[in-house]
Amino acid sequence: MATTAKYHSAFKKKKFKIREYNRCPICGRPRAFLRRFNMCRICFRKQASEGLIPGVRKSSW
Question: Where Zn(2+) is bound, by residue (predicted)?
Fold first, then answer.
């Protein structure tokens, strides 16, 4: 219940800009957020390996 409440309160507009923080819209994770792709690292990796993010490929060398 507390996690759900935090998830929903994170997407509300805050009174002061400094209080805003990024959460992954897919899973709600507050840490390891990638601004460029607007998701956390775990969701990014999952979607990139499935080929759902255009222009992203798994590198190998």
Answer: 24, 27, 40, 43
27 annotated as a binding-site residue: yes
The whole domain housing 30 covers 4-50
User: Rounded to an integer, what distance in angstroms lies between the CA atom of residue 3 and that of residue 24?
Assistant: 13
Question: What is the tally of structural domains in the chain?
Answer: 1
Whole-prediction pTM value?
0.70
| Kind and range of the H or E run holding 43 | helix 41-50
Q: Is the dihedral of CA 39, 44, 46, 50 positive or negative?
A: positive
Task: Report, as an integer, the average pLDDT of 42-60.
Answer: 90
